[in-house]
Amino acid sequence: MHLRTGNPDLQERKERARQHLKTLGSAGALLYGRSANSWKKEGDRCLEGERYEEAIRAYGRALALDPEMVDAYCYRGWAYKELGQHERALRDCEQALALDPKSELAYNNRGATYAKLGQYERALRDYERALALDPKMAVAYYNRGIAYEKLGQHERALRDYEQALALDPTDAEAYNNRERLRGRW
């Protein structure tokens, strides 16, 4: 399931959004009295509070207003992943990448979804892409460390946990994983 920038569904939604905004002017930029950015921020709050269904609704409303909001696709995909709706998660990550092929967040989130599906090699490829785009993305090192560990590549996993901690010393999970791995040897 690969989406392309020429996806008819995306093109149709973009055109509907443009026509809606053209017809209604600035008032058309609101849904239930709120802007796309406001809905995205609401989604972020819900996601952080692990209220995934609410996050999905809020991101969906943001995307109804701005169908090119890459981060809303990325974070809605993360919420879908957390609910075990992996196909929807992958679809949102693909959509984000169709809009912005340099979205390190989309690669990281798609990699995390592949990891949830046990597809660690695919996950590793996406983490590599994310890190090529942003070598300071601590969460991608952490996630790649998990994938390496699942594949039995403990030295690589340890190095990635250490890099994640060098970039984000407050990451308790990376610290715990690193110490657990150190104790294995």
Give an overview of the whole structure.
The chain has 185 residues and is an all-alpha fold. It has a domain at 1-101: Serine Threonine Protein Phosphatase 5, Tetratricopeptide repeat (Alpha Horseshoe), CATH 1.25.40.10. Helices cover 75% and strands 0% of the residues. It has ten helices and no strands. α3 runs antiparallel to α4 (70-82), α4 packs parallel to α6 (104-116) and α7 (120-133) packs antiparallel against α8 (138-150). Residues 1-6 and 23-28 have low confidence and may be disordered.
Number of strands: 0
Largest sheet: none
The CATH topology of one domain: Serine Threonine Protein Phosphatase 5, Tetratricopeptide repeat
Portion of residues in beta strands equals: under 5%
CATH hierarchy: architecture of one domain: Alpha Horseshoe
Radius of gyration: 18 Å
Range of helix content: over 70%
- Total helix count? 10
Query: Could you spell the SSE succession in H and E letters?
Result: HHHHHHHHHH
Measured distance between first and last alpha carbons: 41 Å
Query: Would you identify the CATH H-level superfamily of one domain?
Result: Tetratricopeptide repeat domain
Q: Which descriptor suits the 3D outline?
A: elongated
Roughly what is the average pLDDT, rounded to an integer? Answer: 90
Question: What descriptors fit this protein?
Answer:
185 residues; mainly alpha; Serine Threonine Protein Phosphatase 5, Tetratricopeptide repeat; 75% helix; 0% strand
